[in-house]
Design goal:
By secondary structure, the protein is of the alpha+beta class. It has a single domain, classed as Pyruvoyl-Dependent Histidine Decarboxylase, Chain B (3-Layer(bba) Sandwich).
Length: 181
């Protein structure tokens, strides 16, 4: 039996609790995917897969369903510490070709930084498989222009989730690209 997802959605969430595991559970609830049996997969965005809204995606899932996702996750129990996670995605112009999804988690970075970094990772992986010539030492904005001008990569997107730790609690951030069967 072959399963190639035809739809996917981005979601993200934040959870806080005195216990680390319960903090993660609350982040899943915030993201709307706490009822799924999540299976983490690697970085390929399937050919002809369409991005749908989080509301549409969650409505298509059943409690207890085995659900595949690419997830970035991070947690802290330090008051005031900036904690973040993001998935980034790069979409090929030819939808019969696969794209890439990246996971990134870090401390001390704002949402735009972590989102750009996740998109950069995914776009660079896709660019190398498509044979796009670029200088890896250039900054992301310059490489992004090259990627888009090549006509091979049509777009990129990310779902960054960043917050600050709270005294006496674990704070968990998650970001996921969830596949819909």
């Amino acid at each position: 039996m072959t399963f190639v997802p035809r739809e996917a959605f981005f979601t993200k969430g934040i959870g806080r609790h005195k216990n680390n595991l319960q903090s993660f559970e609350l982040a899943l609830r915030d993201a709307g995917i706490e009822k799924q049996n999540l299976v983490y997969v690697s970085s390929i965005f399937p050919p002809k897969c369409q991005i749908i809204s989080v509301e549409q995606g969650i409505a298509k899932l059943e409690p207890g369903q085995i659900t595949y996702c690419v997830m970035a996750r991070n947690a802290t129990n330090e008051k005031g510490r900036l904690v973040g996670a993001a998935v980034g995605m790069a979409f090929p112009a030819d939808e019969s070709h696969y794209g890439y999804i990246s996971e990134h988690h870090t401390f001390g970075a704002e949402e735009d930084e972590i989102g750009d970094f996740a998109e950069d990772l995914a776009s660079t992986m896709l660019a190398t498989t498509l044979g796009i010539d670029f200088d890896p030492d250039k900054d992301y904005d310059e490489r992004r222009e090259i990627y888009l001008m090549s006509g091979e990569i049509i777009d990129s997107a990310s779902a960054p989730c960043v917050t600050r730790g709270v005294a006496g609690q674990w704070t968990t951030t998650i970001s996921a690209a969830v596949f819909v069967p």
